[in-house]
Amino acid sequence: MKSTLGERMDAIVLKKLTKKYLTAKKEELIAVNSISFNIKEGEIFGFLGPNGAGKTTTLSMLSTITEPTSGEAKVNGFDIKTQQSEVRRSIGIVFQDPSLDDELTALENMDFHGRLYGLSKKKRIQKGVELLKLVGLDDRKDDLVKTFSGGMKRRLEIARGLLHEPKILFLDEPTIGLDPQTRNHIWNYISKLSKESNMTMLLTTHYLDEADKLCDRIAIIDMGKIVAIGTPNELKESLGGDVITVETPQASKLSKCISKHSWVKSVKIHDHSITISAKNAEKHIAELVKTCASGEVTISSISVHKPSLDDVFLHFTGKTIREQEAEGTLGIMRAMARSH
Questions:
Q1: For the range 288-291, what are the long-range contacts, defined as Cβ-Cβ under 8 Å and sequence gap of 24 or more?
Q2: Which residue intervals of the chain bear CATH 3.30.70.920?
């Protein structure tokens, strides 16, 4: 059984870690903007945000693939700038992009990885077979990887990342592009690993349900900055109660009318709707409807629910994660256009 987070040592420490790039037109782009947080030993820590928010760049710095512009970080007690070899030996990585050799078998992929880390032949075979069994691929160990499904490849990559027995595992969007059933299988493997090995995991994701299900704590990153951090429940409770969503073509007008009520904790305008945080929301629906009527605001629908991570993300960033995804993609396309 895990001890409480407060009793455990820090496995990863970031202090004002920053990464800046220059575009083709010599414009400065801040990918990661002076972020600071600690991750405890044995913790599954989620890094939640849309593509382009700075998640993968942070992971690249912590794994010594990319050098930070400023700030500092320690991984398993080792400095990412001055002790890179020690950092690399301490970590396992499951990259967002596939990195397996399709022309090798599953066991051969494991063996090749073990050679890179200087493991003996006996240990490579023993650990390789053991880990393939862990992820349910022992019966396919001698099959070429090119015959595997996307989910099977993801499981193999997780097994490979564990071969050299790292203290810390980095998982960059581990279930991206997978079907719901396979995603659930991957979640089960990650949870099982955490419980059985007390391994520290840093998981980047833009799936809200993934962060909610797996993570002990979550940091929400938006445009390179940490905007919120806490356990899933702490983040939800920070909204101050229930969430009322009102669909209306007059969202701005309703926001002004409703903000004067003492029971309203916060109001956020979102497309053709507003979200209202309020305690005991059900008791105030009649008053809300009355306010809409007196303000001549048309209501399409009203719903009440307990806060979700989607509500938390909207509260702290002003947009849903899907909108942030769309804007991030558009921004990348514009940047590419400017560079030509």
A1: 288/244, 288/246, 288/258, 291/254, 291/257, 291/258, 291/261
A2: 240-306
Which span out of 22-31, 107-116, 279-288 was modeled with the highest average pLDDT? 107-116
Give the pLDDT score at 27. 86
Contacting residues for 119 by C-beta, under 8 A, at least 6 apart: 127, 163, 164
Cα(339)–Cα(122) distance, integer angstroms: 51
Taking alpha carbons only, the member of 166, 160, 64, 150 closest to residue 112 is: 160
Helix axes 150-161, 106-116, angle to 10 degrees: 30
3-class state of residue 87 by DSSP: helix
pTM of the predicted model as reported, rounded to 2 decimal places: 0.82
Query: What is the length of the chain?
Result: 340
User: How far is Cα 340 from Cα 336, in angstroms, rounded to an integer?
Assistant: 7
Mean of per-residue pLDDT scores for the chain: 88
Could you give the residue ranges of the DSSP H alpha helices within the chain? 55-62, 84-90, 106-116, 121-134, 150-161, 180-197, 208-214, 232-237, 251-258, 285-294, 309-317, 321-339
Residue type, 305: H
| CATH code, residues 240-306 | 3.30.70.920
Cα gap 149→29, rounded to integer Å:
37
- Please state the CATH superfamily assignment of the domain spanning residues 5-231 in this structure: P-loop containing nucleotide triphosphate hydrolases (3.40.50.300)
For the segment 150-201, what is each residue's pLDDT rounded down to a tens digit? 889 988 998 898 898 899 999 999 888 888 888 888 888 888 888 888 899 9
The tokens describing 156, both together, are 């193999």
